[in-house]
Design a protein that fits this description.
The complex is a heterotrimer of chains A (about 425), B (about 190) and C (about 270).
Chain A (H helix, E strand, L loop, with lengths): L11 H9 L2 H10 L2 E3 L8 H20 L9 H10 L4 H29 L7 H23 L4 H12 L8 H9 L6 H30 L17 E3 H26 L29 H9 L3 H21 L11 H22 L5 E2 L2 E2 H26 L9 H6 L9
Antiparallel strand pairs in A: 1-2, 3-4
Helix pairs in contact in A: 3-5, 3-9, 3-10, 4-5, 5-6, 5-10, 6-7, 6-9, 6-12, 11-12, 11-13, 11-14, 12-14, 13-14
Chain B lengths: L7 H4 L2 H23 L5 H5 L3 E4 L8 E6 L2 E7 L2 H8 L24 H4 L5 E5 L10 E2 L10 E4 L6 E3 L4 E3 L11 E5 L2 E4 L1
Chain C lengths: L1 H11 L35 H13 L25 H9 L2 E3 L17 E3 L13 H6 L19 H10 L16 E2 L7 E2 L20 H16 L3 H30 L4
Antiparallel strand pairs in C: 1-2, 3-4
The chains are: A mainly alpha (about 425), B alpha+beta (about 190), C mainly alpha (about 270).
Chain lengths: ~425, ~190, ~270
């Protein structure tokens, strides 16, 4: 909970600053003494990890922009020059490319944490909605960024996604032409995508500021989903969570380093090491893994416009979650029925991702994957629009503990095992 | 246990100091690649030396070669030009120092310190005033009063050893590092 | 790439590939041969001898049709690569001609119209065998020989795929397979019809270090060279990575101890 500030400037400089621009006070109140529930687990460390990821992407991105040339004839070669000639250019490029994948890995864990523990429920609806906005901005940024190396997948991925706009009746083709700046994806498109790719992360940073500000009003949720009732329920953010977050951040960075240094092309597609050729379409156009579930949804609908609406609807749906879930209980730890549907939803997302990665005509065990994608898409929408409202009303939740402190320290508090 | 700010004692504990120090060392080590990436690339460094073929240059003639992004004057001096240069009293020059990369800063601007082989004068063709490219003086078209170069931007005049004689330029034209690979081939840089 | 498909499949269920085909023979490319290379794995490095021999194969066999324009002559003497001496690299460069810059009259061709050429220096990129794509196609029956600078990274299957193509010729096609005119049978290539004639032959090059030049040896060496061409910084990357991971594990250990100490009485 945000309460009155307890900051007490001691030195002369601190007092001088405090009267003019109280940054030390802000740091103190939000990151030092901020009362945080004492029972936060590993899944709560991903917010800090995400801030780190944003910083990594911005710093490596600015560095890459010192050497990258956003021109259709030179882009591919400029990226190779970065890989070969620029001192540590290979490191900057691999950190940036793999950093994007790590960024999305972290954001998905962060979002699933929010779903499981009911972090979107009142009074935290706005934090969740701002989060969806950040997620949208991230997807746009990643999409623009992937076009920049101007490989085969860059070009054709841009072509497929921008062509979606032509599905809009009447004005669709005009919008597509306007986006391209030409009659097809080309140099004009590349230049504006570079400009937007540079811009968006700073907008994300601003929105992240709003996200954290909105969080600091009610304070953090916690795995039990019950409110903080007394100071016994919390610990100061520093040093308890600064150190804990630092530790888990290092574990995350170890995973990041494993990819960057030992398998830097794991998340990539070999076709993107071929220069873009507007006359030759690769046999399978696939986006990066973090966009695959939505790609699968899009492809599962035979009608172009409906496919776009379904894909867009899947993301817009997220905004309404705080009102779709009717349960009085926040955390799935105490919601035995909802918990099952949650895990089924997680499996459904992974399944959709797998479908998106395969060719349109692919089949496994004799089942065409397009049907698997259709059923999984159906479950996706059913989970939010049917299951969330209904289960909240019919479920009998488990008994909630009296308080966080009682659950952590208390004698008979047998906290459910996840 | 009431949640209060951690007591001062824990801050001094070894484990916290160790974590912070190791973290700081890591951050410093990671900073180097980010700084080094702004240094010239291996492609730029590959262009750092140029070999110049001197065979076609006639006495009294200058060729201009591109070197590290700058014009390089390679001039084959006539005996008259060499003599004129040697006759100059170095102490009376506006800039009495050699400005030769291969020599210490204090070396005087004698003709020998400006051209290893008197016949070949190799200079960086950037006026030491504000960076324009001076025009070479030839018997057919003299430029300036000293038989060397005239910079048309602000009137600086250089002599037959590229030393500043008149005008706003403060230093003599810079002599780059070079070695002769043979009588007709020189490697600059 | 193989790993990615497998891990996705593991979560979604067992992966059994069984795409259906409509007509006759399934001309899907064969799974690449399981050739081992010295540079694979977290501790792998490039074999210098293989790199130098591979460069020789590229220069004498492949460069006639395939460009490698992202490579520069100065890469040949840099650490992590074939590591020729500077003198050797300069000599290799000087043996190659590149278009000259305009002369004092502003000309780039002589009176007969042929382009003026000069010897390459360390600063130059490897020159392409053809001036543009149309010329390349005209000289190769309409097919475009791809640039080889990135070929190992640009193909699914990587070095094993390229090795299999190079050693996959000289076989008889199965009964019922129709070989397209002006193409060659190679079952490791999608569709089994490849435009490239078999490039390698036994003793096609004479290795200066005396290694016996079988097709497999030549293929292994040139693939090693091409792998380096795609990833010249691989050794530096793994070295840096090893240090980074050791450091990070140490840091994690120290932070873990700090975390446990701090939280001892708070759980």
């Amino acid at each position: 909970m945000s309460g009155p500030s307890t900051y007490n400037p001691k030195s002369g400089i601190e007092r001088w600053l405090d009267q003019r621009l109280p940054l030390p006070r802000l740091m103190h109140d939000t990151m030092a003494t901020f009362p945080t529930p004492r029972n936060l687990n590993i899944w709560y460390t991903f917010g800090g990890i995400l801030t780190f990821c944003l910083g990594v992407q911005i710093i490596t991105g600015v560095v890459l922009a010192m050497h990258y040339v956003a021109n259709a004839g030179l882009a591919f070669d400029s990226v190779e020059a970065i890989m070969r000639d620029v001192n540590y250019g290979w490191l900057m490029r691999y950190m940036h490319a793999n950093g994007a994948s790590m960024f999305f890995l972290a954001v998905y864990i962060h979002m699933f944490r929010g779903l499981y523990y009911g972090s979107y429920k009142a009074p935290r609806e706005l934090i969740w909605i701002i989060g969806v906005l950040i997620y949208l901005l991230m997807m746009a940024t990643a999409f623009f960024g992937y076009v920049l190396p101007w490989g085969q997948m860059s070009f054709w991925g841009a072509t497929v996604i921008t062509n979606l706009f032509s599905a809009i009746p009447v004005i669709g083709t005009h919008i597509a032409t306007w986006l391209w700046g030409d009659f097809a994806v080309g140099d004009a498109t590349l230049n504006r995508f570079f400009s937007l790719h540079y811009l968006l992360p700073f907008i994300i940073a601003g929105v992240v500021g709003l996200h954290i500000w909105a969080l600091h009003v009610p304070g953090n949720n916690n795995p039990l989903g019950i409110d903080v009732k007394s100071p016994q329920d919390t610990v100061p953010f520093h040093p308890y969570y600064t150190v804990k977050d630092a530790f888990y951040l290092v574990l995350f960075v170890i995973l990041f380093a494993a990819f960057v240094f030992f398998s830097p092309d794991f998340f990539g597609n070999p076709d993107n090491y071929q220069p873009a050729n507007p006359l030759v379409t690769p046999p399978d156009i696939v986006p990066e893994w973090y966009l695959l579930p939505f790609y699968a949804m899009l492809r599962s609908i035979p009608n172009k416009l409906l496919g776009v609406i379904v894909m867009g609807g899947a993301i817009v749906t997220l905004v309404f979650i705080p009102w779709l879930d009717t349960s009085r209980v926040r955390s799935c730890r105490f919601r035995p029925l909802m918990k099952q549907f949650f895990w089924a939803f997680a499996v459904c997302c992974v399944l959709l991702g797998y479908c998106g990665s395969q060719g349109v005509d692919a089949a496994r065990f004799g089942i065409p994957l397009v049907w698997v994608a259709r059923i999984a898409s159906l479950y996706y929408f059913a989970f939010f629009w049917l299951i969330m409202p209904i289960i909240g009303l019919i479920e009998t939740p488990k008994k909630l503990p009296a308080s966080i402190a009682q659950s952590v320290f208390g004698d008979n508090a047998a906290t459910p095992a996840e | 246990m009431a949640a209060t700010t951690s007591d001062a004692g824990t801050r001094r504990d070894f484990i916290y100091v160790a974590s912070a120090s190791i973290g700081a060392v890591g951050a410093a080590a990671l900073a180097w690649p980010f700084i080094d990436q702004m240094n010239p690339t291996t492609a730029a460094l590959a262009l750092a030396s140029t070999e110049v073929d001197l065979a076609a240059v006639q006495p009294g003639q200058q060729i201009i070669v591109k070197w590290r992004g700058h014009p390089l004057f390679v001039r084959r001096r006539t005996p008259a030009e060499i003599a004129a240069s040697k006759a100059v009293d170095v102490a009376s020059l506006p800039d009495p120092l050699a400005n030769n990369n291969a020599l210490p800063d204090s070396a005087p601007a004698t003709d020998a310190n400006r051209a290893v082989k008197p016949e070949w004068l190799i200079l960086i063709g950037v006026c030491t005033h504000l960076g324009c490219t001076p025009t070479v003086s030839t018997p057919a078209i003299p430029e300036g009063e000293y038989g060397g170069w005239l910079c048309h931007c602000h009137g600086s005049m250089y002599d037959t050893a590229g030393r500043i004689r008149k005008g706003p330029a403060p230093r003599n034209l810079e002599v780059p590092p070079y070695t002769f690979l043979s009588d007709t081939r020189v490697k600059v840089g | 790439m193989h790993l990615k498909t497998l891990s996705l499949g593991l979560v979604a269920g067992l992966l059994v590939s069984s795409t259906a085909f409509a007509e006759g023979l399934d001309t899907k490319r064969l799974h690449p041969k399981d050739e081992k290379f010295s540079f694979e794995g977290p501790f792998g490095t490039y074999d210098r001898g293989a790199l130098q021999r591979g460069f020789q194969v590229y220069k004498e066999v492949c460069a006639a049709c395939h460009s490698a324009q992202h490579l520069s002559f100065h890469n040949l003497d840099e650490p992590g690569g074939p590591e020729f001496t500077e003198a050797q690299a300069k000599a290799l460069a000087a043996a190659v001609k590149v278009p000259a810059e305009p002369n004092d009259k502003g000309e780039t061709t002589d009176e007969k119209g042929t382009a003026l050429m000069r010897s390459a220096t360390l600063a130059d990129h490897f020159p392409p065998p053809y001036p543009n794509e149309n010329a390349a196609r005209a000289n190769n029956g309409g097919a475009l020989p791809p640039d080889l600078s990135m070929i190992v990274k640009a193909r699914e299957g990587g070095p094993q795929y390229v090795y299999s193509i190079l050693t996959g010729f000289h076989q008889s096609p199965p009964a019922g397979f129709k070989l397209t005119a002006n193409k060659y049978y190679n079952p490791y290539f999608e569709g089994w019809n490849i435009s490239m004639p078999p490039p390698l032959a036994a003793n096609g090059v004479t290795y200066s270090d005396g290694t016996k030049a079988t097709i497999e040896q030549e293929a292994h060496d040139v693939v090693t060279f091409l792998a380096w061409a795609s990833e010249p910084k691989m050794e530096e990357r793994k070295r840096f990575g090893f240090g980074a991971l050791v450091f990070l594990i140490m840091l994690a250990g120290v932070l873990f101890a700090a975390y446990r100490k701090l939280w001892k009485d708070q759980h």
